[in-house]
Structures are given as structure tokens and as C-alpha cells.
Amino acid sequence: MSDCLFCKIVAGAIPSKKVYEDEHxxxxxxxxxxxxxxxxxxxxxxxxxxxxxxEADKDAIGGIFLAINRIAREKGVAEDGFRxxxxxxxxxxxxxxxxxxxxxxxxSMQWPPG
Length: 114
Ligand code: 5GP
Ligand code: ZN
Prior knowledge:
Helix content: 10-25%
Distance between the termini: 30 Å
Number of helices: 2
Largest sheet: 5 strands, antiparallel
Radius of gyration: 14 Å
Order of helices and strands: HEEEHEE
Bound molecules: guanosine-5'-monophosphate, zinc ion
CATH class: Alpha Beta
Strand order of the largest sheet: 1-2-3-5-4
CATH superfamily: HIT-like
CATH topology: HIT family, subunit A
CATH architecture: 2-Layer Sandwich
Number of domains: 1
Structural class: alpha+beta
């Protein structure tokens, strides 16, 4: 866990531009944004992928979607629409193995994603 980039961000050992924080959740700007609004929303607890979630994590993960709802409104992308992406595993393109949800907005999106 000490080697995990996002755990270091949660601990404050690596700086981030925070947009939201509560007991279970941290949200911060992606360092390499793929859209005008690109926020990463993560559980503070370390879990490498969605596959590691269990019953006890329900509240924390539910809270992530409420945080996304709030951040989308605050960042002004709620009305026009936005995308939420969670990559899971190597073929998905996941690079950081600490669960995170990408909130992307401020431009038109293509479907299906690449
Ligand atoms: P993934 O490909 O794992 O779904 O997404 C990882 C995301 O983390 C990428 O969009 C990448 O730009 C972002 N990222 C990688 N390193 C850092 C960092 O040190 N700080 C922040 N804020 N974002 C990072
Ligand atoms: Zn971690």
C-alpha cells in the first residue's frame, strides 16, 4: 500500500488539487486532463480494482456517486452532461491500481469509447 500513488495523495505525501473530501472519499483534478473538467473520485481505503469491493464498502462507494453528482454541479457540467469512467484491469487501460472514477465533462464525448 505504501507504494500506491493514490494512497500517497490521500495521505498528503503527494500534493493534489482537491475538489471534495469527506471521511471516506477524496476528489481531485487529474494531473493530465482529458477534458476541460477531469476529476478523479476515489475511496480513501486502498482497493486495487472494483473486483476487490465487498459488502462493507457499499456506503463508501455509494457516497462516491453522491460526490460525483455534487462535483458535476459545482463544476458546471451537470446540465450539458458528463461521463463517469471506471477502468478495471489491464485491458481497460487502468494505470493506477487504486479504485478511481473519472468525472469527465466540458466537451462532447464519443461513443463507444476507444
Ligand atoms: P487510469 O488509467 O488508471 O484509469 O487513470 C489514472 C489517472 O490518474 C490518469 O488519468 C492520470 O492522468 C492520473 N494521474 C496519474 N498520476 C497522477 C498524479 O500524480 N496526480 C494526479 N492528480 N493524477 C494522476
Ligand atoms: Zn492506494
